[in-house]
Predict the structure of Aminopeptidase N.
Amino acid sequence: PKTIYLKDYTPAPYLAKQVNLSFNLLPGKTIVTSEVRYVKNPVGVSSDLVLDGEEQTIVSVAKNGVPLSDYTVADGQMTIASPGDEFTLTIVSEINPEANTALEGLYQSQGTYCTQCEAEGFRRITYYQDRPDVLSVFTVRIEADAKAYPVMLSNGNLQEEGGLPDGRHYRVWHDPFPKPCYLFALVAGDLVRVADTFTTMTGRNVDLHIYVRAGDEGQCSHAMESLKKSMKWDEEVYGREYQLDLFNIVAVSDFNMGAMENTSLNVFNTALVLAHQETATDSDFMSVEGVIGHEYFHNWTGNRVTCRDWFQLSLKEGFTVFRDQEFSADLNSRAVQRIDDVNGLRRLQFPEDGSPLAHSVQPDQFIEISNFYTKTIYDKGAELIRMQHTLLGPQTFRKATDLYFDRFDGQAVTCDDFVQCMAEASGRDMTQFFRWYKQAGTPTLVASSHYDAAQQRYTLSFKQSQPETPGQTDKQPLHIPIAVGLLAADGREIVPTQVLEMTAREQSFTFDGIAAKPVPSILRGFSAPVKLETDLSDDDLRLLQVHDTDGFNKWEAGQTLALRTIQRVMADPQADISQFIADVGTLIAQGLSGQGDKALLARALSLPMIGVIGQYQPVIDPAAIDAARSSILTQIKRAHKDALAALYEANANPGEFTITPQAMGRRTLQAAVLEILTTTNGTGCAARAKAHYDAADNMTDRVTALSCLSDSTQPQRAEVFADFYTRFEKYPLVVDKWFSLQAIANREQIFDDLASLRAHPDFNIKNPNRVRSLYSAFAINNPVKFHDPSGKGYAFLRDAIIELNSINPQIAARLVTPLREWKRYTPALQAQMKAALQAVLDTPNLSGDVFEVVSKSLN
Ligand code: HT7
Ligand code: ZN
């Protein structure tokens, strides 16, 4: 496989003025006719036209209507030497969507034709310059059997439709906005439509259509409401209006990722559209809202202004994640949103940044771009935008984004262009800030403090350091925004949040007029994606946990105390942790008094997950972490059993389902309490969890009960899992949950359970959601059994990667993720993880996708 370098970028040799595509959808084959008007690019460096194309049979090629044979095809590219300054090229080719299990290009999902062209799927449809900087106006004609495929959609507006002989029909779609081919989409199937409208800020009416399979139309209202909220939010917060008269969303069951932002024809994984209280959890409802927002926001950040090349992927993804996070924060609880986002970053992006696959937000090289849809590009990328927002402040940031949209609408640009707009709008020099885009690895920030009573002066000192990452040894200091507030010993805030700008490796900041030694609240709102080390005492943290005005840092103080406690118990299982246990009692009492936000209390009562704790260990031993964590949970339960039971009852289901933040907060608090109450997995625990299941009138409560029973060996476990399956076997997304909730079980029989699940008639290796529900759930959310000393967990994953390599290389490559960080584990586990990776690498006919991640992991 070939490595592609950012430094080798050159503009496309030809511009595509107009693209006419015609699809004849036939049983067993699809005939694609592509007619493109090419014009030589004045800034192009070559005169040869080089078109990308894969997995298709060329039927004919013609230039200006005259058959052409003077071209070569090799290594997935067609080259036509010096074809002239302006000409029309017509290529007819044949593809086979029914046989396409990679789910890239044109494929079928349960009989519905659909496309996935980002990043390089368009080349599986026709020969074209498959790169994001070639923008063109597309007209698309689709022809198919009218009965089997009554719905036929593409981007833009419907221009023409009609009947044809032999029961066939056609539709012509035209998208007036030039776009790169990765935003092209086509859907044809027998789907039902849910319709609504939105009136834009200038009074235009936009038709909103969601297409789903018959029977699913009752599960679309949350997605539709989320779409309307997204459209309004983008107008209010960014001044961005939708430009076309129609916005379509289509939900399909077989999809490699969550969703795709194709212009005016978003294609979604059903998991991120369908939501009903009976079948979707609160967390599903939140994900639907967030991803509907995310794809809609791409209309401006990705589509109207797109990427020059795939090294700029974070230009659209980082910015759009930041936008969807802020959208969700505005609609729900800002502190809860931030806690969940940071938890995700620490659990999934920090490990990536510390692994052999660490890469910068604007990478310099890749082999397979689909492997670069990573937590770093998305979530660290969003943190980079957030820091710019923090540094500039909301008004100047808005000025800068206005400038960005005005200047680059209709263009394909770079991350440098974005940051330049930040610099121009603010008058700041952002050169040093740009290092965040180029340097991989999570920086460490060490904070210390000094109080000078005589001078009434308080000094905060910081040291920053960047770890070495593959190919990057010489790291320069970063420009780090550190949001800080100061509290007095009685908990009063004496200095409200201010942003300190750190630019040197070591830097101090002074606060004058401070009458007594304060307690600092550092990195409020997690103002930079760093690992923070402070010299705060346990008492300082306890003060912050109670009094900090910053919701994120209030929670963070409690988590730091929990981490310290876990570390103490890991070092000495008999360690005295009575103070920590007593503090948890205070939190429970607070909950019983009805004070405070329930969602925040639920998070405060939850110990950090094993994956997060591992990030703070020099060598990760999941079983040892789990033992300490379980011992603490058991002590909490024993000490506060009655209070916890009372808190559980006080938050019982009131019998009326809503998805307001308050109702979700109540459910999540009850779930956190039930998790502690059932932690010992005895008979009483199982009875409690079953009672929770029996009282449930919604999926959130059912999943809570199942997850509390998952590790159990009591008879109620089998009863409840069987009932759940029988009730919901017709709902694939719920069956996914049934698979996952068993795959995460930390119990002896797990490897037998996994084998039965793999052999279950509902398991389908070709469906990515089902694969994720078994394999990713196990490998990511069952750290103890995945890292079982027998190596059986690694072998289970290894076999799936090898099987999927030839079926769906993108999904196979993603499954490698939990093995990448092998060097962080104990020597015994390392050896087994490495052996599993090596076995994959030794597999014949390894796809480029899998080869890249496995070979880099082993480096
Ligand atoms: N922009 C979309 C990316 C995407 C994708 C990438 C590779 C393979 C399959 C894919 N499906 C969608 C998703 C997004 O970030 O909005
Ligand atoms: Zn995106």
About this structure: The longest helix spans residues 622-650.
